[in-house]
RNA sequence: GGGCCUGUAGCUCAAUUGGUCAGAGCAGAGCGCUCAUAACGCUUUGGUUGGGGGUUCAAGUCCCUCCGGGCCUACCA
């Protein structure tokens, strides 16, 4: 048994996320966590909301609520949605927690003591009407290059020229539209990542088994231009973690907070501490996951994220950890994903284009989404959601191949033998062949999941389901029943055991349906099969079951068309 | 502008990292079965691997070039 620490990238707090946010971190990490638990490993699976930063403040203002209240409510909402999708976090924390405040301030103090923090004085745009400094992208104006009138302060969307907000002609606040802007001098703390660049590069180079996507992004940042740049880790905002050296004030930094990307990854650790608090345990309980001097030496730590998160997880956060000089656990493997597009374009929160997580759960059970998203997860390149593909995949895989198998076996048994596992007959060559085939398939399935190759794992699982249909067709218990009822009984007994087998193996991907299958068989739980032959003999003759309802109703053409129209845009 | 990824059957993806006639699922066609959610099984059509050039005994894989798609470029997160 090993100990596996799993973190999913933190969803940002400013509203309900669309499916793209699920597919690249939360779902694959959940499949992995469920699988590893099923294999008997000790798992700590952590996620949290990422609550700080300008967008959170703006979203709260739009909702007409104090930001703390807004975040608390949105956390509840996101938690409920995560539960709805069956995400099995050991703890779903908040980056605004007391634990994260203390830990973030602690890390800053350690970095400062190590000489890795320097003060930088910067000129920033201040909006008098908004009463706040504006990040570059929140300053709009006319592009000096092409004349586009809605260019942003970081880059002109029209001509793609990189800009400085002070370059803009007639600059205005993107928040209020106010032109009452001024340049103000402000002091910020920078993390001296450049000092650690050599260590970081050596560390990245040692990770030869990481996805290409992960290492290529990391190396790009390490080597581009003048190499890894120092990074500002503080902001002039109200909502956030106050800049302090541990418990002590930080002279000159009064009224400032840490940058959201500094405190967000630290929340992985803090959320584990929140978990210990919530379950009434002491610090040792979470430290044994995170401190290599306190028991985390044998932990394998895996992170899941979309590609946009990779620089912060390969460089900034490791710089924080390494720079602290303390024995915190560094990530062992980073599984990164590309983007999921929607019907030929991007999912768009602002345009209401695509399916949002709450809407997804309204229209279909979680397992439909889990299955399709994971069997089409963007592992090697961006992938695309279309309603046609979604309908075809779900109907064929879940309804026809798996659901119908459960249906045909249980209904046939009920009509011929009644609702208990039938007695009589013995295994023949046919059953032994299936056991041999499934043993090979199971090994491939496990290998894919061990390697976090989600598409491959899904394909193997599907192939395992198909074996059941092939077996039934060949064994034809409906024909055997007429001449040799004992043989038919043996086939049905074997097939009912296959349902149990499928429930166990499918649970990482479709936990709700798997639970229904077990429940129909009158079981609360079932162990992962270490031996296929034994697993397929687990249900004895005489064991009662209940013929389940249709496991997966098919998506009709009418539904598909209605949804395609509803989610085309304009939420 | 710079960097990275990507282009394989109508669709979605594989191909042990340079090594048998480039494979699977879906869709299409034919046959079979009748237990089942008109479900299942078997067989089968379909590819000059985006175009062109090069290296090699051997290229989907490496190099050059052109064309298309995408991402990143450090204050959105």
Task: Tell me what you see in this structure.
This protein is α/β, with parallel strands linked by helices and about 575 residues long. The chain has a domain at about 385-535: Orthogonal Bundle (Isoleucyl-tRNA Synthetase, Domain 1), CATH 1.10.730. It has 19 helices and 19 strands. It has helices spanning about 20-40, 55-60, 65-85, 100-115, 195-205, 210-225, 260-280, 285-290, 310-325, 355-365, 365-375, 385-415, 430-450, 455-475, 475-485, 485-505, 510-520, 530-535, 555-565, and strands at about 5-10, 40-50, 90-95, 115-125, 130-135, 140, 150, 170-175, 180-190, 230, 235, 245, 250, 255-260, 300-305, 335, 340, 345, 385. The strands form six sheets. Strands 3-2-1-15-16 form a five-stranded parallel beta sheet, sandwiched between helices. The protein is elongated. The model has no long low-confidence stretch (mean pLDDT about 90). The structure holds one RNA strand of 77 nucleotides.
Could you list some keywords that capture this structure?
571 residues, alpha/beta, five-stranded parallel sheet, 48% helix, ligase, metal ion binding, ATP binding, coiled coil, methionine-tRNA ligase activity
Task: Report the C-alpha radius of gyration, rounded.
Answer: 27 Å
Mean pLDDT across all amino acids: 90
CATH level-two architecture of the domain at 387-535: Orthogonal Bundle
Termini distance?
48 Å
What spatial order of strands do you see in the largest sheet? 3-2-1-15-16
What does the secondary structure layout of this molecule look like, with pairings?
Elements lengths: L2 E6 L10 H20 L3 E8 L4 H9 L4 H18 L6 E4 L3 H16 L3 E11 L4 E3 L4 E4 L8 E2 L16 E5 L7 E11 L1 H13 L6 H12 L7 E2 L1 E2 L8 E2 L2 E2 L7 E2 L1 H19 L4 H8 L8 E8 L3 H15 L8 E5 L2 E3 L2 E2 L10 H7 L2 H10 L7 E3 L1 H30 L12 H22 L3 H22 L1 H7 L1 H22 L4 H10 L11 H4 L21 H10 L5
The protein binds one RNA strand of 77 nucleotides through helix 2, helix 6, strand 10, helix 7 and helix 9.
